[in-house]
Each structure stands twice: as structure tokens, then as C-alpha cells.
Specification:
By secondary structure, the chain is an alpha/beta fold. It is built from 16 helices and eight strands. It has an eight-stranded mixed β-sheet with strand order 3-4-2-5-1-6-7-8, with helices on both faces.
């Protein structure tokens, strides 16, 4: 078992993109931020891209807001996490899903008028913000753009907080299938051939369906929808191209996948599914981070000995022996509970890594307080690295 993730962020093994995957609520955003902080402290020009709409990361990084623009964390604030090697810098941004889609439309629309019509179309506004898979697709498209257009030494990505944390692998195909389906081609065919949405050209069955539908949404809306899909078809070719480029990027040696999980049995079971899913897609987990692990408790001590040790403490002088004995009994019971939790964590983690000879697992202990600033991220980073 290899210790630490220093080689993922120090540049010595060629890794430039670190993608943190895992289910929601396991500390994925905090792990991504901590790795980025440590990379910057090592002297590398670093960006952390978060998909989490919560403001926790902005607060932890000591900035007022986080949005689609790359923002540099002031060097004096970064130093709160520890000494910074000269040349290191930390930048952060939060994905704006619609802005990421707009970037793709601007790149692939054939002219400015088509681009503006697409932006104004109600169908596009829905697709770019709510269609299944659009969030994940936007995240991976933005990652590709950053890799191509920026000169960061390290980019750390916090993947979308979805129910299925690896949806970004399927998102391009799902999104394209939803927009480029045979049903939609049937729908837009009359407009493509005659310049208007002709009920007659759809045949009796199709005409009946659209007439009934137009009573609810209006014929003007149906024609607007058909025209959108025709104009969007050119852009869709660009979406397919970007999907292929992202697919190739994720399989390059410079990309590392870090699986983030928690020690609960159900969460670790999900983590096992993620590992199998990545393997089936031709990808592999470089390391696993288990957050909030219960550490082993102090050595065992019986109640009588513990009560005597309490009685010897000056702050306990005012307590009666009976009160100290009760306190000692409670502390002994608490230690048993902590030992049980620690052993359950150890067994669950062992199951996750069973049969994986190349496993690298980093356990981050359960801390006394939540991480809410750069100093806290620095503490997490030291456990990771």
C-alpha cells in the first residue's frame, strides 16, 4: 500500500488532471480543494474546478464569491495553509452550466444570427439547464477547454453531486441521443423540406398527434421547436466532436481518478460499484480517499484506575468519589463504542480494497471540527499528501 498522494500533484509522474469522483456528502469538494491547495503550495500553478453550487468552497478559500470566471486566491491567504514554494498559485472557479453550453454554441454555430436565435430559444434554455446529462456534459466540456486553452500545471475537478456520481461518463451519449433521436428527425422533416411545419407532410397519424399537441402548447411553439432542432443540428456536430475529445482526454496518462468515499458500509459499497464502472469504461482508480475515519481509541483502562487518575487532577478536586466513579464508567463505555466504530471502519475499508494488489488508500481521520478556511484545508492536505 502506497502512502499519500504527493506524486499526483508534484509533477514527477506526469499527472496534470485529477478528477475526484464519489457520491454526495463524502467530502469530495473538500478533498478536491485540499489537493489543489497543496499543489499550489508545492509551487505549481493550480486550478480547482468545482461543480458544487454550495458556497462552502468559496468560504474555505477566503473569497467572497465563486463563479464561472477563474479567480486567483491572494497569495497571503494561501499562505494560511502553510508556506508556499515560489511560483505556486491557486485559482478557483465554479461551473456555470449554461455558460459552459453557451461557449460550445458560440464555437460551433455557423453564424452570429443562428447563434443568437439558439440562445433566445426556449428549448435551448431548457436543454442547457435541465436536460438529463447536461450538467455532467458541461463539466467535462469545460475541463477539455481548460486543458486546451490554459497553462495550469494541475487542474483538480470536483465532479457533479449527482445520485450516480459517474454519470459524466455517459452524459455525452445521453445528451446527444436525447437531441438527435429518430422521433425528432421525423418531427423536423416537414420544416426542413418545405420551410414550414406542415401537418400534411407528416401523414394522417402524425398530423393527428401534432394537432392534439398544438391545442396545449400552440402551433407557433411547435414550429419554434422544430426550427430550433434544425439550427441546433450544426452545433450538435460540435457537441459530438467535443464528446469524442473528452473521451480521449480522460484516457490519457496525465489524468488521475481519485475515488472519495466515507467509512460507512453502504457508502463503501457504492465506491466499489464506482471502481467496477470505471474499469468497465477502460479507466482506473489511481487512489481512494476515505474521509471521516474513526481513529483507534486510547489504550484500555478499567473504571477504578480511571477514577483514581481523575481524582489526581486538580480540576476534579471538588467532585465526590461517587461522581468520579460515574464519570469513569461513562468514559470506559465511550471508549468501547469508539473502538467498535474504529474496527467497523477498518473492516469495511479492507473489503473495499480486497483483491486489489495495486491499491492506494488514504484515510483522513474524523476531525474535531468542520473545515471552513484555508488552514483547515491545509490540515486535510497534510493527511492526503
Amino acid at each position: 500500500m502506497r502512502a499519500g498522494l504527493a506524486d499526483l500533484i508534484d509533477g514527477k509522474n506526469g499527472k496534470r488532471i485529477i478528477i475526484c469522483v464519489g457520491s454526495g456528502g463524502v467530502g469530495k469538494t473538500t478533498t478536491a480543494a485540499a489537493l489543489a491547495v497543496e499543489a499550489a503550495r508545492m509551487g505549481r500553478r493550480t486550478l480547482v474546478l468545482t461543480i458544487d453550487p454550495a458556497r462552502r468552497l468559496a468560504t474555505s478559500l477566503g473569497i467572497a464569491t465563486l463563479d464561472h470566471e477563474e479567480r486567483r486566491i491572494p497569495d497571503e491567504r494561501l499562505a494560511a495553509a502553510g508556506p508556499v514554494t515560489p511560483g505556486g498559485s491557486l485559482h478557483a472557479m465554479m461551473l456555470d452550466q449554461k455558460r459552459a453550453f453557451d461557449d460550445l454554441v458560440e464555437r460551433y454555430a455557423r453564424d452570429a444570427q443562428v447563434r443568437e436565435r439558439i440562445f433566445a430559444n426556449r428549448i435551448y434554455q431548457q436543454i442547457s439547464s435541465a436536460l438529463s446529462g447536461s450538467h455532467e456534459y458541461a463539466a467535462m466540456a469545460k475541463l477539455y477547454q481548460l486543458e486546451r486553452d490554459r497553462d495550469y500545471d494541475v487542474v483538480v475537478v470536483d465532479t457533479p453531486p449527482t445520485a450516480h456520481a459517474l454519470d459524466f461518463l455517459d452524459a455525452p451519449a445521453k445528451l446527444i441521443d436525447a437531441i438527435d433521436s429518430p422521433a425528432i428527425e421525423w418531427f423536423v422533416k416537414p420544416l426542413r423540406s418545405s420551410g414550414r411545419l406542415s401537418m400534411r407532410l407528416l401523414g394522417i397519424g402524425g398530423s393527428y398527434v401534432l394537432k392534439r399537441l398544438s391545442k396545449f402548447v400552440g402551433s407557433a411553439f411547435l414550429e419554434e421547436m422544430a426550427r430550433f432542432f434544425i439550427e441546433f443540428n450544426d452545433v450538435l456536430g460540435g457537441f459530438r466532436e467535443r464528446a469524442r475529445e473528452v473521451f480521449a482526454l480522460l484516457r490519457q496518462p496525465k489524468v488521475a481518478f481519485v475515488l472519495v468515499t466515507a467509512p460507512e458500509a453502504s457508502t463503501l459499497e457504492e465506491a466499489g460499484v464506482f471502481k467496477a464502472r470505471l474499469r468497465a469504461a477502460g479507466l482506473s482508480i489511481t487512489a481512494t480517499v476515505v474521509n471521516r475515519v474513526n481513529p483507534p481509541p486510547p489504550p484500555a483502562c478499567d473504571s477504578a484506575e480511571l477514577a483514581a487518575r481523575l481524582a489526581a487532577r486538580p480540576e476534579c478536586a471538588a467532585f465526590a468519589p461517587y461522581d468520579l466513579a460515574r464519570a469513569a464508567d461513562a468514559l470506559v463505555a465511550t471508549r468501547v463504542e469508539l473502538a467498535t466504530l474504529a474496527e467497523a471502519n477498518r473492516e469495511a475499508i479492507a473489503k473495499l480494497t480486497a483483491g486489489d494488489a495495486a491499491r492506494r488508500i488514504i484515510c483522513v481521520p474524523l476531525l474535531d471540527e468542520d473545515v471552513h478556511d484555508l488552514a483547515g484545508l491545509g490540515r486535510i492536505a497534510r493527511h492526503l499528501v
